[in-house]
Amino acid sequence: MRHLLLALSAAFVLACAGGIFDSGLDSGDLGGGAACEGAPTLPTEATAYTVGWRWDEQVGGSVSDTVSFTVPEGTVSLAATMDAGSSTVAWSLVRNGSTWVDLYDDPDWGGPPFKPSLGVASSVVLPNNEVTWPQPGCLQLQAVSLDDLDSATLWIGSRQTEAGSRMDLNVYIVGDTVLYEDELEAALNVMFDLYVEGNGPAIGDVALWSLDGSAFVSPGGEDMQQMMQASAGTGDPRAVDLFFITDFTESGILGMASGLPGAVMVDGTGASGVVLAVDSHLDGSGQAVDTDLLGETIAHEVGHQLGLFHLTESEGDDFDPIADTPECPPNHDDNGDGIVDADECIGLGGDNFMFWVPGNVRQEAVSSTQSDVLWFSPVVK
Amino acid sequence: MFWMVLACSGKAVDEPAGVEQPTPKLEPLAPVEPMQGSSLRMLLKAWHSDDVPGREVFDAHEDAIVQLMELARDDGEMIVRERAMLSLSLYPESAEAKALLVGVAEGDEHAKLRAAALRGLGGWKTDADVVALAESAKADADPRVQAAAAALLE
Question: Is A324 on the interface with B (CB under 8 A)?
Fold first, then answer.
């Protein structure tokens, strides 16, 4: 994945240098352009649109039509996912009031407040920090791919009311994975307590499904994407999908979100959910599930799925785009090992549930803006 | 605290999982305390495997290889034991580390640990005994062990 990202970045750095995109935006099948005239109103329920793509020789990749929507007054949050089936895509333009992603004119493409989310389904959620709240007016989106695409499906939906306090879950038990109901309930209670005590949403309805397929998937592999695609048409698409597998085929992975953010408000894309490895949460003898750890992993990965980043990355040189979360820079590396761990960052985010590593204190802190991102998420109702 | 909804079946979905879940099969175990005094243990608990540090970071800690071997052998959490074994691959000069990993890979511990031990043996992947071990592990019934053996033979 990282190699692909580098390749994609390199391709578009060349494109920027050539000024290919200086002439402005294309209008897509949905109508509208820079002025957003005639663009459809942003739907509330996630709705699928077929978007045209074209190959660009100079770029060495495909570029989607620019699609436009009119964001109505009162829009609380929105989510958009470009689903290209088996092709990897990434957003090249996200513009609403301000320009949040601009591959062509912004040399920092990939920097805050959004980072590139490459995958068979690439997503964006507004808001993901203090300043990315949806603005009434025009929303414009465009995506890119290294593959030769003719079309892809855009899923887009929104939340139009501040009323709402619960996040529903679709829980998929995959193949012959064993997770007992009392273990699941105990783990979800840990997540529930963390979110509610952090002024985030409560867990609402939990729909429990048994999903055919292998209990072992490769991390980020086609089989993992296909597993999520197999859930299409089952649960409430506004619910957050959790896939419990026995394990990944690679070692040492607790769980993973499908992106930052992953696809939300839509199920059945290759990025629609969080995958949790039950066996990675066993005790050292492999006999009992540590439900506290499992609950904390779910809370952390759902945070990613809904758009939250790590407050501080391991070397103390990369931070989330949220202003009210503390940062822990390298001068707090008290033991000189080159990284800032949670205990070195007490008071600087080490006790926050989105810190990069757990510590000797329970990570229950949720900042005010983090709780806003969760509370006003388009999945909350 | 939340509602459990047993959903209807869909095209790729069988009967609701909740109905058929058996009762827990195990008696509660005595809690296993984390290894005391390990400065590396916390680093092995990173939320994401990509964030588990490398040797340069480990070696800034006293007796890193000893800590990793103790964590691999005795820690109370599967993820810590597993990542400690993976990290031992960074110390190919240690015969003790190799012996520990071979012992786990050949033993009857949880398949997840045997797979991690095989991956940890990547630091010795050209050794004839390790190649032979990987060849035999290819036939293991567990897909994690199979995948680890295949990776070791690449």
Answer: no
Domains and CATH numbers, chain A: 2-159 (2.60.120.380), 166-305 (3.40.390.10), 311-366 (no CATH)
Considering the entire predicted model, what is its pTM?
Answer: 0.88
Contact A220, A322 (CB under 8 A): no
B68 interface with A at CB cutoff 8 Å: no
What residues make up the domain containing B126? Answer: 40-153
Beta carbons of B82 and A211 less than 8 Å apart: no
Number of domains, chain B = 1
Q: State the nearest Cα–Cα gap between B144 and chain A, in angstroms.
A: 5
ipTM: 0.88
Q: How many A/B residue pairs have CB atoms within 8 Å?
A: 191
Distance CA A109, CA A113 (A): 10
| One-character DSSP codes across B80-98 | HHHHHHHHHTT-TT-HHHH
A317 in B contact zone (CB under 8 Å): no
Asked if the C-beta of B154 comes within 8 angstroms of chain A's C-beta atoms, the answer is: no
Least confident of A12-26, A216-230, B52-66, B140-154: A12-26
Q: Note the pLDDT tens digit of each residue in A190-249.
A: 999 999 999 999 999 999 999 999 999 999 999 999 999 999 999 899 999 999 999 999
Q: How far is CA B18 from CA A68, A172, A221, A281, B22, in A?
A: 43, 10, 28, 20, 9
- Search chain A and give the residue with CA nearest B81: A284
Domain membership flag for residue B69:
yes
